Amino acid sequence: MADQDVFRRGLVDMANARIEDGFTGEGDELRQIIEAHDVVFAVWQDASQRDGVGVTLIKGDELLQTVVDTPRAVGTKLTAIPCSGLEEAEAMRKVYGDPTHQH
Fold this sequence. Notes:
It is a single chain. The chain is α+β, with helices and mostly antiparallel strands. The protein has one domain. It has a 3-stranded mixed β-sheet. A hairpin with a 7-residue loop joins β1 and β2. It is globular, with a radius of gyration of 13 Å. The protein starts with a helix and ends in a 7-residue tail after the last helix.
């Protein structure tokens, strides 16, 4: 399994754990989760994707670039949030995330 597949599987597992914990996606709950993490991905079911999962970054674009550009370890608090699709994920990003991030 490629590193990217392992990473995506981890994001799916995080999002599924949120669902199991009763995640509703309502305003304060969503805002608190996003504010508490450095990097946040949205995850949804997407039959058009090879693995059946859509993923996009909501928050942490600049930090991820720093991680890529830095030869040493960079600590980050990362999570994934379940959502209904790309449209909802983009709305989350616009309200709570990195407004300069482009899908």
